[in-house]
Amino acid sequence: MATITAVVNLDLPGPTISRHVYGHFAEHLGRCIYGGFWVGEDSDVPNVRGIRRDVVDALRAIGVPNLRWPGGCFADDYHWEDGIGPRDQRPRMVNSHWGDVVEDNSFGTHEFMDLCELLGADAYISGNIGSGSVREMSDWIEYLTRADDSPMATLRRANGRDEPWKVPFWGLGNEAWGCGGNLRVEQFVSLARQYATYTRDHADNRVYRIAAGAHEDDYHWTETLMRSFDPLDQDDRPATPFQAVSLHYYTRTGSWAEKGKATEFSTDEWYLALSRASWMEELVARHSTVMDRYDPAKKVGLVVDEWGTWWDVEPGTEPGFLYQQNTLRDALVASVHFDAFHRHADRVVMANIAQTVNVLQAMILTDPESGALVLTPTYHVFEMNRGHHDAAALDVHLKGAPEKEVDGRTLGLVSASASTRGDSALVSMSNLDAAGAHTVTLDLRGRDITGHRARVLTAPGLAAHNTAADPGAVAPSVHDGIRVRGSLLEVELPAHSYLTVELDIDAARIGVPSMSGRRQDLFPG
Fold first, then answer.
1. DSSP code, position 38
2. What is the value of pTM for the model shown?
3. DSSP-derived pairing of the beta strands 66-69 and 122-127
4. φ and ψ of 142, to 5 deg
5. What's the DSSP call for residue 264?
6. 175 among known catalytic residues
7. How far apart are CA 450 and CA 53, in angstroms?
8. What is the spatial distance between Cα 36 and Cα 503, in angstroms, rounded to a whole number?
9. Do the Cβ atoms of 239 and 519 come closer than 8 Å?
10. Running DSSP on this structure, what letter comes out for residue 212?
11. Is the Cβ–Cβ distance between 411 and 361 less than 8 Å?
12. How far apart are the C-alpha atoms of 356 and 370, rounded to whole Å?
């Protein structure tokens, strides 16, 4: 059993890990909306105004900070006025991207905003640049956020909502390099500036505008977007005409045609998936370096608003619905991503896993026959990491961690990150070793530790997953494998596991002030 040291200076807090890094994504795709969130008011499934109650309760338990909707690729086919008014009078449309099914628009703007209010989550709306118009987008945000007797506010009231909503986040298109228009970045930049101009702040609603960004390692796309900003050297104002750019990256072990199986994989494929997940660190670092050249003050946010695993669909399911199981491997893919986001908290202001219910790397699976709700291993990583929300990042200096060469890349077999808030701290650790346990010695410096608690997420098999018949096959449990050695904590890290250690810190020893306030006046929510 190898011994690894992790040095953490508890008195040197860094930038804030925004809670919005733990954001979610709900697209009109497969059973994410219909059968996932939305069952309708007449359903036998317990619901609140048609929204499934147990899904809301489960997501509130992990503190969902924001929800991105209506897509994804669907967003650039979506015309919001089709989704308002009496449901039985709403026009239908074809969802050409996902199964070529007919969409009846019974879940629209009012239903989505009701969902966000039930969740206690901020709304992140992805606007239609691909097939929409500037006026359409301008009218939508007026409809949502204006309080007076403007034409769109009057229309909203006629549809049953008197008070405006708060909409902090607005996406300017989605995957403009692909399903959002097949545009070159030079074309998209002009459109993004134009649409941003008409995505107005109404009353006290301040919108954080996010321009559709790069696919994977397309650094040219990011650089062209950064060149398009108004001057960024004025310290007293946010970036304009938009405030952030996005990045999309999905983990898979095969090609886009054959992505790999969710529950049937070899040990080599286990390592390959985790190696490819770890590429997110390089992507974020290199896109950030491009952004630093034009924005050294880090006014512009990087929003990773689509990430996660993408496997072949489960046998017997509709290929266009992207329904996949979720194993312990997926949970560790998530934990590796969060470590990367934490380490780049100065630039990564938001991230959205794809997707929340019944699609891709979901938090929740709902069984269409029994109606059962299943929490996935990935869900548990989100829950175990709640202590990182809006906490100050701490550097973790790993020494002696084992490595493995995978597909031409070096994969560290232990990953870790940490944060602190007030008189507590949270250390997260992942053991990516398929077979070997490791001991991690936590060398915690700068403040005194008065208590500690640990939980672990693991299972006997690498492909273990939860089902309606066995919903607790992969679930967190109390971990008692910690020994105190003077000022050190020795933590036993089981093979293929995710572990968190919550620390109580002596409040009498106060660290230096956090440097996390840089974006507080620019970033809503």
1. B
2. 0.95
3. parallel
4. -65, -45
5. -
6. yes
7. 39
8. 36
9. no
10. E
11. no
12. 20
Residue 381 tokens read as 């990583």
In the set 27, 103, 111, 306, the catalytic residue is 306
DSSP string, 145-157: H--SS-HHHHHHH
C-beta separation of 374 from 31 below 8 A: no
| Closest listed residue to residue 339, CA positions, set 476, 499, 123, 159 | 499
Please report where in the chains the tokens 């919550």 appear, as a residue: 502
Q: Which residues pair with 421 in a beta bridge?
A: 424
Q: What is the rounded end-to-end Cα distance, in angstroms, of the chain?
A: 45
φ, ψ dihedrals at 124, nearest 5°: -125, 105
Residue 405 annotated among the catalytic residues of the structure: no
pLDDT in tens, the chain (525 residues): 557 999 999 999 999 999 999 999 999 999 999 999 999 999 999 999 999 999 999 999 999 999 999 999 999 999 999 999 999 999 999 999 999 999 999 999 999 999 999 999 999 999 999 999 999 999 999 999 999 999 999 999 999 999 999 999 999 999 999 999 999 999 999 999 999 999 999 999 999 999 999 999 999 999 999 999 999 987 778 899 999 999 999 999 999 999 999 999 999 999 999 999 999 999 999 999 999 999 999 999 999 999 999 999 999 999 999 999 999 999 999 999 999 999 999 999 999 999 999 999 999 999 988 889 999 999 999 999 999 999 999 999 999 999 999 999 999 999 999 999 999 999 999 999 999 999 999 999 999 999 999 999 999 999 999 999 999 999 999 999 999 988 899 999 999 999 999 999 987 554 444 434 444 445 554
On the 0-12 / 13-18 / 19+ scale of CB atoms within 10 A, 264 is exposed
Q: Is the peptide bond before 471 cis (omega within 30 degrees of 0)?
A: no
Paired strand residues for 475:
none
Contact 243, 304 (CB under 8 A): no
Enter the tokens of residue 44: 């036998």
Give me the catalytic one of 111, 175, 281, 383: 175
Residues belonging to the chain = 525
Beta strands in 35-166 (DSSP E): 47-48, 51-52, 66-69, 93-95, 101-103, 122-127
- DSSP letter at 491 equals E
Which ranges in 322-388 belong to alpha helices (H)? 328-343, 377-384
Place of tokens 């239908």: 92
Task: Give the separation between CA 357 and CA 272, rounded to whole angstroms.
Answer: 25
CB contact burial 389-413 (16+ within 10 A = b; e otherwise): bebbbbebeeeebeeeebeeeebbb
Tokens 């011994």 -> residue: 3
